[in-house]
Amino acid sequence: AYVPAAPQFSWSGFYIGGNAGYGWSSSSGTLTTTTGPEPFTASGNGFLGGAEAGYNWQAGPAVFGAEADFQGTTGSGPISATAGPTISGTAKTPWFGTLRGRLGYAYDRILFYGTAGGVYGDSTMSGTVSTAGPFSSSTTFWSWTAGAGIEAAFWGCWSAKFEYLYIGT
Questions:
Q1: Lowest-confidence pick of 54-58, 105-109, 123-127, 145-149
Q2: CA–CA separation, 70 vs 57, rounded Å?
Q3: What's the CA gap between 146 and 46, in Å, rounded?
């Protein structure tokens, strides 16, 4: 008797979804004050959440894809500098997004992948300089990001993933 083969799962196609997570950061740089450039350090952490969309193409076990996402964050933390005047304040990243490629290996309904691309977002700093008073600064930035993840399709076309992204400076 003929027994048809079970349909094989495919990662090919368009997808949309939501994401939530936690981020942390550490950075340093130079603030220009009335007395000249001053080195500073900053760190922060916070929750993030947003939406994503992408498209995958599967050829055998290889999966190629492109993804875009956007998230709002509660990420903030202290900044300080003491080389010249004392600088204290808060650094925040209220939102960011990424545009990335994905390359993965599918084992039926499990996908292992690496990802890399660009990141854009907004960074703000505000606080006080001991010799000049309050300050506030905001900038939109572009940088690079890379990471890896594992995704599992668990019900029909529904999936969940765990992903780590590193954002460069």
A1: 123-127
A2: 22
A3: 20
